[in-house]
Amino acid sequence: MSTSDIDRTTPDSRLDPHTMSPARRWNYWLGGKDHFLVDRESGDRIAAAWPAIRTAAREGRAFHGRAIRYLAHEAGIRQFLDIGTGLPAPGNTHEVAQVIAPESRVIYVDNDPMVLAHARALMIGSQEGATSYIDADARDPAAILSAPELTATLDLRQPVAILLIAVLHFIHDDQQARQIVADLLDAVPPGSYLVATNMTKDFLDPQTAATFDAMFARGHADTWPRDRGVFGALFDGLELVEPGIVPISEWRPDTLERPAPADVAMYGAVGRV
């Protein structure tokens, strides 16, 4: 389904081709087709200042796949709450989990109308499991947790993996980010997991970091970087899965050849309740 198909089929007035969408921009960096000119312009502006952004996008997707495989295979998780889903791409949460455990149940959450239209059309799970979608914002955990789609699909008395991949850095208030995570974790039982990533400047050289700061000040960058300490505080009280808080390319890598931390500039971690 292309952006033109979405234009004709979705009645959602929020689909604005003149306002940049992080989900569509991410799709552009990954080489997808579901984006508008405004998304490409924003993506190109960032890539001009930091050419490694496409590498970071690919590594973010690879981290996602490795984390899901760990959860489904080693941790035995069968329920997934994927918040800030983004546009469908190879290796969606239900695809990875249900290859390992066809009975896996997955809820996708996003408030981008193009994401939702694509998800409903393309994200069809296994017969043994279940896949559903919630139109909601990560900033409102209560709305997510009370949505009828969630209660019909997931059993919150059983462990759930909460995925916040490449979404928390759009929450610019650190206290708000911690509260979102706390509210979500309060709703799930022991044995559940948190998977999260966040952009960081910890690995950037001073010139690149200064360039990012200038772009952020002008409104040309919209991710809020967190250092290791601030990001790690999101996992307070959880048991970190080895290797702990690391650049996403270093979390249980499946290849010896991987980019330098400065080329991904993103922390990732998995923690157990």
How would you describe this protein?
This protein is α/β, with parallel strands linked by helices and 273 residues long. Helices cover 41% and strands 14% of the residues. It has 11 helices and 8 strands. Strands 1, 2, 3, 4, 5, 6, 7 and 8 form an 8-stranded mixed beta sheet that branches. Strand 2, helix 6 and strand 3 (130-135) form a beta-alpha-beta unit. Helix 2 (22-29) packs across helix 3 and helix 4 runs parallel beside helix 5.
Task: Detail the topology: elements first, then pairings.
Elements: H1 3-9, H2 22-29, H3 37-49, H4 53-74, E1 79-83, H5 93-100, E2 105-110, H6 113-122, E3 130-135, H7 141-146, H8 148-153, E4 161-164, H9 174-186, E5 193-199, H10 206-218, H11 228-233, E6 239-240, E7 246-247, E8 266-272
Parallel strand pairs: 1-2, 1-4, 2-3, 4-5
Antiparallel strand pairs: 5-8, 6-8, 7-8
Low-confidence stretches: 1-11
How many beta-strand runs? 8
The rough form would be described as globular
- By DSSP (H or I, 4+ residues per run), the number of helices equals 11
Helix content: 40-55%
Biggest sheet layout:
8 strands, mixed
Distance between the termini: 38 Å
Average pLDDT, to the nearest integer? 88
Write the element-wise H/E pattern from the N-terminal end onward. Answer: HHHHEHEHEHHEHEHHEEE
Q: Which structural class best describes the helix and strand composition?
A: alpha/beta
Q: What portion of residues belong to β-strands?
A: 5-15%
The radius of gyration is 18 Å
